[in-house]
Amino acid sequence: MLTVDGIPAHPLVVHAVVVLLPLAAVGTLLVVARPQWRRQLGVWVLLLAAAGVASVPVAVRTGEQLKQALGGGTPLVAVHENRAETLLFPALIFLVLLAATVFAGRRADRLVGWEGPGAAHALVTGGNVAIWRWITLALGVLAAIAGLVVTGIVVLVGHSGSEAVWLA
Fold it and tell me: Which pTM value belongs to this model?
């Protein structure tokens, strides 16, 4: 079993999931709310989401190790395990939608001549800019919804895990 200074890694790794994915979901709401925030925070929020998603399989694996080390589990542990196994796919969808939002937004920014903070904004008219802005907004709304769904799943998984620890 993987440990950190003698402590099972699972409770430690879980905190990465519990903190990073909801934080990325909140960041996604900000990124979608204002294009300026997307320009400033988009890549950082994407990195948070990527770290959170990468933590999910590690948390699942260390949870399996902890369960085996404790000699199996109770029905509450089984509920927690089943819920945890549902998290990775929606988290990946969230990550892909967020990445698409950030990159579509960058494409829209390039089309209007935005080159960084303080740069003069060129007025560009035409279908391409409007299409890319609409695509960015649509992807952003979907990413925000996915982030909220993922946060809800994280809460359900965490709640069942705490029940397994404290009510067992």
Answer: 0.88
